[in-house]
Design brief:
about 140 residues; five-stranded antiparallel β-sheet; 5 strands; alpha+beta
């Protein structure tokens, strides 16, 4: 597509960023996500999306030993951000955010549940690789 042609803001798109098991990957994902949303005119969703993606990616990096990925998808007015990791086990169930205000850990999925319109997870198996995908959706208002 030539650079001067207008882009349909409602057109679906998707990006995947594959990351190593490295704590620095969380910052890289957050900054990449900010750039993607800004370039697609979704700056109003950046702060919440960054917070939720940071929780998902940091869980993937901290609690697994293999590679991970951040996936961002826009379709039908819904922004889905998810993290894939190589551990097929389910994520810890989210606790009550109010009960975790002073906790040092364990707030991640509670934040996701509190700030997202929908969230969930699914086990994955593809090409002999196993893992899980934890996602959350924000509906653009």
């Amino acid at each position: 597509m030539p650079e001067n042609e207008p882009v349909d803001p409602a057109a679906p798109w998707e990006y995947t960023l594959y990351i190593p098991n490295d704590p620095r990957a969380v910052t890289i994902c957050r900054r990449t996500l900010r750039l993607i949303l800004t370039m697609h005119g979704l700056i109003r969703l950046v702060d919440t999306t960054e917070l939720l993606a940071t929780e998902l990616v940091s869980n993937a990096v901290r609690h697994t030993k293999g590679p991970a990925a951040l996936r961002v998808r826009w379709a039908g007015g819904v922004l889905r951000v998810g993290a894939w990791d190589a551990d097929p086990g389910p994520p810890e169930p989210p606790g009550n955010l109010d009960a975790l205000t002073d906790a040092e850990e364990g707030r991640g999925l509670a934040l996701v549940r509190a700030c997202a319109d929908w969230w969930g997870w699914q086990p994955l198996a593809r090409g002999g690789n196993r893992g899980k995908y934890v996602w959350r959706d924000l509906v653009a208002a």
